[in-house]
């Protein structure tokens, strides 16, 4: 598929229970937002068909259907992709309140939601604030549709109105399947978000309107996730945690709220595992997998903090480099999975400096050849520390090779050109930008014009020309202050001739921009 999303996703449960289908559809929608999902079911399996359609599948095909039926579905998919859904989120907006649109969160498409969630996470990092992600399900709607055996394309107006009325205006909101929404609330912790849930339930207790089904008592079940600064989780992982918290809340009963931090521990006991119903197994597997991923994230961030604490000029270097690398990667239109791996690798790229003596890290002047040899070991030290973490399969090559030079004179393996992973080539430029923009032990911070000039000078020698060109364009277009940042940052000089003064050292052509 390359860098492009597919036109349609086919899912084949292949003997799994109907209760597993919602998770499969959710995962497909997360991986490919706004791409139609078609479920292939066993012949005559009406239960699986109902479940698939009510959790957001575009259509269902039975295993025994002929090519005519497949052609019909594909034509409908192509019409959807090129016609009615050309403007993302238009159909959803039609079901939102008619008035006061500017003061309430608007319903956006899943792909736009994930983009905005990335921006919110980055803003949280910069300001050291907290935000929440919540997944909200309207209780009983799916069962109501099952009983009536009738199509139900929209949600009850009262639910949509109430949801938009209680969410704060900076919130971002998207529909997620048949009877669910996902929302992100800036500057909200678990307590604040739980209060929003209660206000929503109070709003739903108001009298129903005429166009709603009779005797439909509305309630909402919610999964909450609190997100703190410096998380290295991808937006999809944050949404997945909210989904798992929602599934836990549903096990507690109708109209409940569950917080991720309350369910993340303990792991199920052997007795719990033995008593699981088949329908619960998928939930517990997903919960344990996400819990392990979260614990790994917390552990690696602790390692990042330890590495930065060793360097008196480290500051927020790893976090800043991660933001820069993501932005350059997006401008180069790298795949979302590559950009996600790039962010995590950037957060962890200096972990290997834990193995470098403090006397070398804190040295204000040029390094000796022996000291530089020690420094050059830090990518391999990072590999030794992280290689047993199965979650980092995509990130490890980026971390290992981010000091390779495009002309083949870098380290640790002397790779050149496209032998160097694209993520490592992007990280090299992002690392250099922050190193130059920040104060170091041996130099002051550079102004923006000097940074641009150094990146251009290093193009095709130290840096991939395509990455360098993209980075310079971003520096020209972005609202950076031309003046240098007065923020300390990690980094060391390389061996070479001893400059006569600081000005000459900063201009020396035989010193590496960043180590």
Task: Summarize the structure in words.
The chain has 515 residues and is α/β, with parallel strands linked by helices. The chain is built from 22 helices and nine strands. The strands form two sheets. A six-stranded mixed beta sheet has the order 4-6-7-5-8-9, with helices on both faces. It is globular and about 75 Å long. It starts with 8 loop residues before the first strand and ends in an 8-residue tail after the last helix.
Labels describing this entry:
single chain; 9 strands; 6-stranded mixed sheet; 3-stranded parallel sheet; alpha/beta; globular
Topology:
Elements: E1 9-11, H1 21-31, E2 37-41, H2 46-54, E3 59-62, H3 67-82, H4 90-93, E4 107-108, H5 110-127, E5 131-138, H6 141-148, H7 157-166, E6 172-175, E7 180-186, H8 190-204, E8 220-227, H9 235-252, E9 257-259, H10 260-263, H11 270-275, H12 278-310, H13 317-331, H14 336-348, H15 358-361, H16 369-375, H17 378-386, H18 395-400, H19 422-437, H20 448-458, H21 465-477, H22 502-507
Parallel strand pairs: 1-2, 2-3, 4-6, 8-9
Antiparallel strand pairs: 5-7, 5-8, 6-7
Helix pairs in contact: 7-8, 9-12, 13-14, 13-19, 14-19, 19-20, 20-21
Name the beta content range.
5-15%
Per DSSP E runs of 2 or more residues, the count of β-strands stands at 9
Number of helices: 22
Any idea what the shape is? globular
Biggest sheet, in brief?
A: 6 strands, mixed
**Mean model confidence by pLDDT:** 75
Low-confidence stretches: 83-102, 147-153, 488-515
What structural class do the secondary elements suggest?
alpha/beta
- Major sheet strand order: 4-6-7-5-8-9
Rg of Cα set: 26 Å
Give the % helix.
40-55%
Alpha carbon gap, first and last residue? 36 Å
